[in-house]
Amino acid sequence: MWFKNLRFFRLHPDWSMDSIDEDVAAHAFTPGNSQEPLSLGWTSVRDEADLVHRINGQILLCAKAEKKLLPSTVINQIARARAKDKEAEQGYKVGRKQMKELKEDLITELLPRAFSIERQVFVWIDPENRWLAVDAAAAATADEIMGLLAKTFELFPAVPVYTEQSPSAAMTGWLADFNAPYPFSIDQDAELRASGESRSVVRYARHHLDSDEIRKHITDGKQCTRLALTWADKISFVLTDGLEIKRLAPTDLLTNQQEQNAQDEAQDFDSAFLVMSAEFNGLITELLEALGGEKKVI
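Above: the chain's sequence. Below: its structure in token form.
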């Protein structure tokens, strides 16, 4: 159990967990019918009855999505063929409205035969430290989970986190000096973007970042929008200008500690989750401090 991404939020100060079990159960995952392109709901974290997984006050939820694959290229290809038949039948060219109706009818026809893919997305809730985090790399996936949270709870539980210093400005300064605030250290991946008309982008991967070339890009006006960092020699990650944490990975220092404590599968899962939640709390707290502190929005 280890998140690969962190889109983190504050828990709304008025949000209560009193009815969390009932709320989550009311929006449990059920397979969609033949005409539903997407089915989304909560499922058990492991092979257990409870949908809300609790360990020492920490909460883990698992969202399950079932999506039917119906590529737009396939729809367009078949729709064009049918449009030609329609033109021959009616004696004039198919218009925009008619083509739209053709595609809609085609989607209705093909959905029952479309392949389905399933995915699971975890949500971590820390009631004591007031965090809510989603393990989603893509914005579209995160939006789906935010929508499910909004449907599940009467009061939307997530409040955006803002910092006194923008992540982009902070990362640009760290990269220019090649010095991140303790206990962070700069790794070997970065992305810099120009804000002018050119919108040029420079990306570095597995590259030593303490160089005059990079400082020249910064002097020319480029801002750092992604930067690979390591926190406390325990967790490596990439920070984005949107305050998203991606490519999370525990270092050997942390994984060795977990391996020493490994027991059976269920206990190992829960132990890893507790270690992860504790370390993530420390990482987020110190990251916000490094960005000048948290802006209060509520």
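The longest strand covers residues 58-69.
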